[in-house]
Amino acid sequence: MNALEWLTQLLEGVVALAAAPALLGWVNQCRAWLQNRRAPSLWQPYRNLRKLLHKEVLIAENASPLFRLAPYVIFGAMVLAAGIIPSMGTRLPLVASADAIALVGLFAAARMFMALAAMDVGTAFGTMGARREMMVGFLAEPALLMVILVASLTSSSTALPAITEALASGHLGLSPSLAFSAVAFVLVLLAENARIPVDNPATHLELTMIHEAMLLEYSGRHLALMEWAAQLKLFNYVCIGFALFLPWGVAVGAIGPVGLLVAVPALALKLAAAGAGLALIETVSAKMRVMRIPEFLATAFLFAVLGLLVHVLLGA
Amino acid sequence: MTHLPLDQQLLDSCAALLLLLSFAMLSQRRIVTLVNLYALQGAVLAAATLLLAWRTGEDHLYLSAALTLALKVAFLPWLLHRLIRRLDVYWDTEPLLNVSGTMLAGLVIVVFAFALAQPITRLADTATRSAVGIAISVVLLAFLMMITRRKAMSQVIGFLSMENGVFFGAMSASYGMPMVVELGVALDVLVAVLVLGVFFFQIRERFESLDLHHLESLKEHD
Amino acid sequence: MITPLPKLLVGCIALLLGWVAVGLAGLLRPRSVRLAGRILFPLGALIGFALAALAVTSLLGGGIERMVLPIGLPGLPAHLRLDPLSSVFLALLGATAGGISLFAGGYFRVGQGTAPGLLGLQYHLFLASMGWVLIAADAYSFLLAWEAMALTSYFLVVTEHRRPEIRRAGLIYLLMAHVGALAILLAFGVMHGAGPLTFHAMRTAHLSSGWAAVAFLLALFGFGAKAGLVPLHVWLPEAHPAAPSPVSALMSGVMLKTAVYGILRVALDLLGPPVWWWGLVPLALGLFTILYGALFAAVQTDMKRLLAYSSVENIGVIFTGIGLTIVFAGSGMPAVAALALLATLYHCLNHAMMKSVLFLGTGAVLHATGERNLGRLGGLIHRMPWVAWLTLIGALAIAGLPPLNGFVSEWLLLQSFLFGDQVPHTFVNLLIPMGMAVVVLGAALAGYVMVKFYGVIFLGRPREAALEQAHDCGWLERLGLAWLAFGCLALGLLPVPVIGALSRVSAQLVGAVVPQTSAYGWLLAPVPGRSVSYGPAVLLTATVAVVLLTVLAVRLLFPQRVRRVSAWDCGFGALTARMQDTAEGFGQPIRHLFQPFFEMQRELPAPEDSAPRYRIVIRERIWTLVYEPLCAATEGLANIAARVQQGRISVYLLYSFVTLLVLLAVALLS
Fold first, then answer.
1. Interface residue B104 vs chain C (CB under 8 A)
2. I need a labelling partner for C200 at 20 to 30 A (CA). Which of A99, A284, C426, C501 fits?
3. How many angstroms separate the CA atoms of C316 and C288, rounded?
4. Cβ distance of B103 and A174 shorter than 8 Å
């Protein structure tokens, strides 16, 4: 462990914090272009966060301390997750203490706090949102874990850097099982980040909302943290996708200044491409009915399992 | 981790893609998308055939790749699209078994198919022997799709996809069938689709729907 | 014998007798709550802690102590033995029972049921018999203790014996316990061959592979019935809600683990090196149990039934681990088998802690509100903060979230699953990774269940007016809860020393230890041959640091004031507590998705109902498919047998006469 590794670790966290709103802004921009609308500025999410942070906080009378604690816990979990995912370098001091399974656990913890906080005030929407979120979660979480486990079977380790290094070193080349996992992963990403076929982030339409229903009681800085955490979550998921399927450009092995100089622009390029892709998916697909979501996620889960099967069968 | 040569990896990827497409077809309710997926499956099959031809240097495989491309990627999808427009069937109704259930059944079938393929895999010495299991899976999955759908249209596509599986199986187990057989099968498929197309019109004229449960009323009442 | 006195074993026996003595002391004044609650139960707790300390000492020493007491059958004195395996489970018993006894000290009151003194006797005899099961080293004393355990727990289950449904639950429990005990008896009968009934003789007996398999399957049936392996789990959801909460906690947290101890003892110790395919049976049953338990837990409306099904799920996890251990051990992969065994044992410890927290939490709620139905609770975090926050730790732990303890065992189990594709048996190496999918799904469902459990009971608004009067629990109860919650935290944050201690069991049972347990001394890295590690303490420190930094930064930079307002009601204006999800509502997606699993009866409200209630009764199909036909068949057989009973003396004499003649004829012919 040297100073540079700690610096990279810190940098990863800071970059994630800083870039996450921009990623969302970019997705929104691409979507607007694709839909022939005038696009909002790339900086709009930052402005929203600033506005919210400066506002007074309104809390429901019967909210418990859990309600006020949750935004901080969720935000903290997401920042930590950003530090674990090898988005720029694989030699990160923190990764030794959390592998991919722990990462999924971290996401699950954030989800659970989110659902509990939503139930805390005791409104109809809050509990409905919590129920739906857990419904999405109990299928999406195993699907994500299966995707990661397929990748870890290929590289014989559940540590994300080991997976990334094994893939980046290129001696695996094409691996059919990863095709299945990639499809599953995209489906999970859409569901977990409340993107279009599953949830619509832009609406408060009562009957279809999931994520927004849970946030209804939040305001001011708490809401800002929740929104920021959601943006970080999207950023993290995209970065997990890179770590598992597109590890090019990541500084493998000992981190030097050159590696970082390559890694940062590579990450930016990949993020831009992924954002555009996400916008495209969201534009061409339609929101589904809530009771269709389990079907969607079961498909994702089964694809991941199939990836596992193909891995064992074809040995690659 | 064993290091496989690149073409082997590509072939394996093609096999996996075929399986992926079979599952995608299983989970798809829109008939238009189903046709597109079928065309895509044909394309992957053509690519796999081409790869194998290049690898083994067997000339007749080039020919079957071209045949696949012409028939399964271009002509049949075009025909089916036309049929869909003429018959106005864009959606299948709710399948008999829900999608998750079907997929789960599909998973079991894949495991079964691979168990089935093991002796063949041990006998064959072709480079693509690991793909035999996938070929059998594709056949059985297509069968499953035919079972769970109501509309005649989706059943025809299932039938065609099944033929894809057979073709791929023959290719991976013994580098393709003799050319005569292959041509014969291609012709069969063509004729079958044409005949079925005619059939569709007849069915619709008779029942004003393509839903196959109407055929149940044809049985003799007891 | 000239061996030195087995100090630890003697100490252990003394402590178990101490429990018996504490129990008997309660009979002095059976109606006195003060004596039982303030003196005896805390005393019992102290004995529990002492037992745990002693067991840990024995485990760390790693030695085996034996002793023969001249009691029991003529020719078969009681053999006792303290080895690493029993030490682990004794530690589990002591530590868990300590916390539960503290809680129980504040819990039991004079009520409709058994008098406190008598209850204390049953309770402490129950504890002592569980301890005896763990140190017994011959079939006779093992089964004696096993039956004592079943009987005392039966009496505890029917504490409120004036209610018919509780008597029914007790009967089902007793029945299953006896069917199981019968199978265990048969298993011992097969195993001892021609030798004496001591475990030592069984270890050295050479069974043919067929008989060994029979013994294993019988033991699996017997211990599986006690543990609650599907389809033998039916007594669990009946008995757990019927019993008083500390007893439920004890049964779920500790007693189920004695069954796990039993199967581990038989399969990995007494039967010698296991055959790999044996493992497939507990593996398959375990996986099915996970899914089954989790699904049924998600649709329950009674909070203790919900926890009972959750126990079923966790037993599934444990048996999955046992199955993997056997498969790996039988396939010549001892290091991986050791890893799977560690996961199993770790999960036993974890489940004891977290399930006890949850059961005790429901006990406190039950006392404060008199309500077990989730649909009539809510908002208790305001009235009962101690119970609520301590229960939250248990709920998060059982949902398998890092950095708590449930995650550690789940992590270990998944890591051992990842070796499944290396098992040298085709087709099996394909199915084992598929099992991983089920484990993962079960863990995610556990999260769903816990959000429902915790959210509906403690969060939101009180669904009934009476809940406003709910009060927090007393200090003894808090102490007990806090100890167990602390156990969840400690097991979660300090896995390295625990794994180090548990490795002695893997050395004893599968003859291998994981090559290393830690990296840098503080990261858990037990996976053989793979560089992967997990450091919960670091993870927690980092999370806390980030959270604190965020709080500070946000508070300093944006010190806007906080105003309390009423919840947003979309302009509707008449938001009531009844608009929250009930337990039925929260389970709806699961019911919808897994419909074929459930047998449902809906009670829909009438349209003009002003206070409508939607009720749904969910039964297991297993009752109609398996148990009811079985009962009918048994009854039919019994009716046929009943024809023998004529009521006339001469007929009975005829029976005796015919028997005598037949026996004489046999003697003549042979």
1. no
2. C501
3. 7
4. no
Cα(C59)–Cα(C508) distance, integer angstroms:
11
Total Cβ atoms within 10 A of residue C600: 12
- C618 sits in which H/E element: strand C615-620
Considering only CA atoms, which of B184, B143, B186 is closest in space to residue B42? B186
Of A120, A127, A141, the CB nearest to C444: A141
Residues C307-316 pLDDT 10s: 999 999 999 9
Q: Is the pLDDT of residue C526 over 60?
A: yes
Residues in B touching C421 (Cβ below 8 Å): none
Please give, rounded to a whole number of angstroms, the shortest distance from the CA of B104 to a CA of chain C: 12
| Out of C401, C523, C547, closest to residue A109 by CB | C401
- Predicted confidence (pLDDT) per residue in C246-267, tens digit: 999 999 999 999 999 999 999 9
pLDDT per residue as tens digits for the range C156-203? 998 888 888 899 999 999 999 999 999 999 999 888 877 788 898 888
**Hey, are the CB atoms on A314 and B15 less than 8 Å from each other?**
yes
Angstrom distance (rounded) from CA C132 to CA C12? 9
Task: Indicate the SS3 state at residue C81.
Answer: strand
Q: Which residues from A are below 8 Å from B107, CB to CB?
A: 302, 305-306, 309
Q: Residue ranges per domain, chain C?
A: 1-190+247-266
Burial (CB count within 10 angstroms: exposed 0-12, middle 13-18, buried 19+), residue A2: exposed
Full domain range(s) for residue A203: 3-314
The ipTM, to two decimals, is 0.94
How close does chain B come to A178, measured CA to CA in Å? 9
DSSP state of A56: P
B114 touches C at CB < 8 Å? yes
Between A and B, how many residue pairs show a Cβ–Cβ distance under 8 A?
A: 72
Q: How many CB pairs under 8 A join B and C?
A: 8
Inspect the interface and report whether the beta carbons of B103 and A313 lie closer than 8 Å.
no
Which range of A301-310, C74-83, C361-370, C564-573 scores highest in mean pLDDT? It is C361-370
The residue of chain C nearest to residue B107, with distances taken between CA atoms, is: C434
Q: Would you call A179 an interface residue with chain B, using a CB distance cutoff of 8 Å?
A: yes
- Split into its structural domains, chain A has a count of 1
Between B3 and C623, the more confident residue is C623
B16 Cβ contact partners less than 8 Å away, ≥ 6 residues apart: A176, A177, A179, A180, A310, A314, B134
Calculate how close chain C gets to A276, using CA atoms only, in Å: 31
Per-residue pLDDT, B94: 66
Contact C430 B118 (CB under 8 A): no
In terms of phi and psi (left: phi > 0; alpha: psi -120 to 50; beta: otherwise), the region of C261 is: alpha
Instruction: Name the band, by pLDDT with cuts 50, 70 and 90, for residue C43.
Output: very high
Nearest to C550 among A75, A109, A130 (CB): A75
pLDDT in tens, B61-80: 888 888 888 888 888 889 88
CA distances to A94, C263, C399 from C228, rounded to whole Å, are 40, 13, 20
Model pLDDT for residues C126-152, shown as the tens digit of each residue: 999 999 999 999 999 999 999 999 999
Name the nearest CA neighbour of C380 among C460, C458, C466, C303: C458
Q: What is d(CA C176, CA C465) in angstroms, rounded to the nearest whole number?
A: 40
Q: Is B118 on the interface with C (CB under 8 A)?
A: yes
Mean pLDDT in residue range C195-217: 87
Q: Which of C338, C216, C206, C326 is nearest to C276 (CA)?
A: C326
What percent of chain C clears pLDDT 70, i.e. is strictly above it? 98
Q: Do B118 and C431 touch (CB under 8 A)?
A: no
Name all contacts of B36-40 with Cβ < 8 Å and 24+ positions apart. Answer: B36/B77, B38/B72, B38/B76, B38/B77, B38/B80, B38/B157, B38/B160, B38/B161, B38/B164, B39/B72, B39/B73, B39/B76, B39/B77
User: Do residue B111 and residue C431 have CB atoms under 8 angstroms apart?
Assistant: yes
